[in-house]
Amino acid sequence: MALPSPNNLDDLDFKILEMLLRDGRKSFTEIADELKVSVGTVRNRYNYLVEENILTIVGRVNPEKIGFHTYAQIYIKVKPVDLVLEVAKQIEKLPEVSFLAMISGAHDLEVNLMCRDHDHLLEVMSKSILKIKGVDETFTNIYFKVFKYAQPELDLLKSNRKTVSSSK
Questions:
Q1: What's the N-to-C CA distance of the chain in angstroms?
Q2: Whole-angstrom Cα distance, residue 24 to residue 38?
Q3: Are 121 and 141 in contact (CB under 8 A)?
Q4: What phi-psi label fits residue 26: left (phi over 0), alpha (psi between -120 and 50 degrees) or beta?
Q5: Using CA atoms, how far apart are residues 46 and 38, in angstroms rounded to an integer?
Q6: What is the pLDDT of residues 38-82, one digit of tens each?
Q7: Which domains does the chain have, with CATH numbers?
Q8: Could you read off the pLDDT of 107-163 as tens digits, one per residue?
């Protein structure tokens, strides 16, 4: 069986992904039974999705319920701009970072931090982020309440999908 490339996932791959998004502990046997394919097919597809970094199975906790009460979005301007990648490498090492991206617009980086409280956020900013060579300016938003924290629905990609061929 030829497995699809990461840019060419088929309906079966997406069905497996959707099932694992709903329940990351679902067994290969359960998935195979529901999709009417062999356990070996599910195992091979799963292994491929993991090896290609398309799928990562993790346990997700509710940050607020375990003690992260300050969730902040930080926009960072880097000067000189050729230090952006180096600044990003330093920031991604911080354990409080839950999201980091290079962005367009007035700032160069966006980082989300999960902190115990405001004092913890102040400590991360003053002792870590603001001390990184190249960080010129920051703009901070604090999330008062997060209403949704999730992956987007995979059905949004449906029009780009190929149907499962009979050879798989």
A1: 6
A2: 19
A3: no
A4: beta
A5: 12
A6: 999 999 999 999 999 999 988 888 888 999 999 999 999 999 999
A7: 6-59 (1.10.10.10), 63-143 (3.30.70.920)
A8: 999 999 999 999 999 999 999 999 999 999 999 999 999 888 887 888 877 665 555
Handedness of CA 125, 130, 134, 135 (dihedral sign): positive
Nearby residues of 46 by Cβ (< 8 Å), 6 or more positions away:
16, 20, 28, 55
Identify the CA nearest to 112 among candidates 84, 135, 91: 91
In one letter, which amino acid is 102? Answer: M
Cα 22 to Cα 71: distance, rounded to the nearest angstrom: 25
Nearest-angstrom CA–CA distance, 165 and 133:
53
Q: Per the confidence metrics, is the pTM higher than 0.90?
A: no
Cα–Cα–Cα angle for 57, 61, 64, rounded to 5 degrees? 155
For the chain, strand residue ranges (E) read 70-78, 97-102, 109-115, 135-143
The two three-digit tokens of residue 17, written as one number: 């992904």
